[in-house]
Amino acid sequence: MRVSELFRIDDLHAKPAETDTQILRGISLTVNTGEVHAIMGPNGSGKSTLATTLLGAPEYEVTHGRLFYKGEDISLWPTDVRAKAGIFLAFQYPQEIAGVSVIQFLRQSLSARKGIDLSVLELRLSIISWMKRLGMDSSFVDRYLNEGFSGGEKKRNEIMQMAILEPELAILDDLRIVAQGIREVRQDRPTLGIVLITHYQRLLDEVKPDFVHILIDGRIVKSGGMELASELERNGYDAYRTES
């Protein structure tokens, strides 16, 4: 597999659009093709702000720094353009969409992402195949998106969407119960770059990221391999606060 730079965060600063309080205070990170980067931090460290900012959500304003995707500066790209280009974000709390079934949502999303209009039958067969691999009941294909889904079902549904839409970069916000699903998708798509944002050590034991980064008060204070996650489990986040 040819390794090349897929995604780069360059000195990113961001704040909520409605306030002047800086949440992200200078984050830099490079993700190459096929790499998995885990960002770990305590509650309030800026993890979800980072995930949402990377997709260009209007709730947050980038005050300094730039984002590059496959060599292009995407700092000003709106959310839909980033998604169409192949950046996927799985939310910590996926929203319900009443009246839109899982298969309808995926058919529209696939058309926007790749310009592909699969027949309902082709798409249904693909979705059901992935649902089996991810341990989901095939009846979910016709249910309204996330309506009445348990927390685990919502997370598995997000991973299934990632499998069908075939992004090149996935930003996964705290999907702690779907490690097997992440491994299944990577098995089919080894060039997929992943930014995994979490504070669950066990998820890292199962996904085995290439790099681990500790996020404290809006800054990455230390980076390393899996040994850093083990060190963090022993010492806790307080040991790194002085480094921020």
- Shape assignment: globular
State the assembly state of the protein chains.
Answer: single chain
> Kindly state the mean pLDDT as a whole number?
86
CA radius of gyration? 18 Å
Q: Going across the biggest sheet, name each strand in turn.
A: 6-9-10-3-11-12
Helix content: 25-40%
Question: Which CATH class of the domain at 5-95 and 168-241 applies here?
Answer: Alpha Beta
Query: How does the helix and strand content classify structurally?
Result: alpha/beta
Sequence of secondary-structure elements = EEEHEEHEEHHEHEHEHEEHH
What percent strand?
A: 25-35%
* Main sheet specs: 6 strands, mixed
Number of H- or I-type helical stretches? 9
- CATH architecture descriptor name of the domain at 5-95 and 168-241: 3-Layer(aba) Sandwich
Number of strands: 12
CATH fold descriptor of the domain at 5-95 and 168-241? Rossmann fold
- Low-confidence segments, given as residue ranges, are none
Assign the CATH superfamily of the domain at 5-95 and 168-241: P-loop containing nucleotide triphosphate hydrolases
Instruction: State the end-to-end CA separation.
Output: 36 Å
Structure in words:
- It is a single chain.
- This protein has 244 residues and is of the alpha/beta class.
- It has a domain of 165 residues: Rossmann fold (3-Layer(aba) Sandwich), CATH 3.40.50.
- The protein has 9 helices and 12 strands.
- The strands form 3 sheets. The chain has a 6-stranded mixed beta sheet, sandwiched between helices. Strands 2-1-4-5 form a 4-stranded antiparallel beta sheet. A two-stranded antiparallel sheet has the order 7-8.
- A hairpin with a 2-residue loop joins strand 4 and strand 5.
- Helix 4 packs across helix 5.
